[in-house]
Amino acid sequence: MLPRSMLRLRTADDDVLAGLDRIRTEFAVPGAFPAAALAEAEAAAAAPPPALEDLREVPFFTLDPAGSMDLDQAMWLERRPGGHRVRYAIADVAHFVRPGGALDAEAHERGVTLYLPDVKAPLHPPALSEGAGSLLPGADRPAAVWTIDLDEAGLITDVDVRRALVRSRDRLAYTGASTADPRIALLCEVGRALLAAEAARGGVSLPLPEQEVVHGWDGWTLEQRGDLAAEEWNAQISLLAGRAAAALMLDGGVGLLRTMPPAPAEAVAKLRRAARALGVDWPDDRPYGEVMRGLNPARAKDAALLYEAPALMRGAGYTAFDGERPASPEHAAVAAPYAHVTAPIRRLADRFATEVCLALAAGRPVPGWAREALPGLPEVMRRSLRRAGDVERACVDLVESLLLSGHVGEVFDAVVVEANEGKPGGLVQLAEPAVLAKCEGEGLPLGRPVKVRLREADPSRRLVRFALTG
User: Fold this and answer.
1) CB atoms near residue 310 (< 10 Å)
2) What is the 3-state secondary structure (H, E, C) of 238-255?
3) What are the residues whose beta carbons fall under 8 Å from the beta carbon of 129, sequence distance 6 or more?
4) Average of pLDDT values for 286-311?
């Protein structure tokens, strides 16, 4: 997106670690698990696998960030007459967690796994999340296995989900994933079909790079990280299962959806004004999702428009229902009803939504413990996801301010990625390091390279502020 400068800023371990400790305290990041929860997890992990349908002959594989141990999903894809078959094994966390027990109560307190640059605060103890519950290669594991048939256009033709015993064959990493591997080549084929189907539905994917805190031998810095192709294809498999789950729950009249309202008209109008200011072509009859898919974040004007786009994707939440169909069941970015069912090791809601789906698919009543929990889960997830977002932002802000704290008064190359309408100021993205910060000044030129002077970098407040020069 930006020209690279010769500047390479890093900050020391001690400063970052001390700041991360303050963040843990400020946001009440969970620490050690209570003894009772640990005891339940260890006992469940030591128990033999349950007697289930045996699908260990299916050569499942996992695809995750390098070094990941909390593996929620494993897949196996096949071509079939007229399309593809997707088998998607999801860790069966419900097998290990006793409803109403100490481990269940602690999971409700945590809600999600929190990832910090130095350590993570897992939703479940490592004995489960990185051990007996994780779909690690070469180990027999209980799973909820989705079998989803697709036609050539990537549309669902049949769905089944059931409990089974699986054994993953291989653990692949995004960074090494290549279409030279027939498994990845087939994932590419299916992923592209699903992306085309998403575009036809009017779904929206934002190719927006993220700031990532990186630790190296000489300290900490920030880098911009965009999704690799294999990540994008893998995400489509997860979205596929989520859409299948939502349809199953809506047909069954009970469940937990992940919903998001359509973009407000005023937000779309603002994005159109930004596109005109940037010179990005947007015909009147072209939906914004199609425009977003055509943007290249390596181009400054496109990146600036992408930074404006998240304003159209607000209001996401969870919707529980039992009996009456929700008035607004869709997730606008997915352009279909959608549910979270693919990350139960790391996200609480998925365990309950999966249990509903398993019961509905088998034609049996939803277990009382799952049904009774549904109404309270939207608030639990709202609270926990908000904390996760706050912690992630605080960690990035900390490293930004530490990187720049000795450079107040210096001038940096940047690009304006957001300009406030009708008032001064906006946001700039530095060329190096990958800092995104507020900038003062009249008439910031959206999408244009600028010179900015660092006015303030305060690690105690995790604050960075620039001003336009000239």
Assistant:
1) 11
2) HHHHHHHHHHHHHHHCEE
3) 69, 70, 113, 122, 123, 345, 346
4) 81
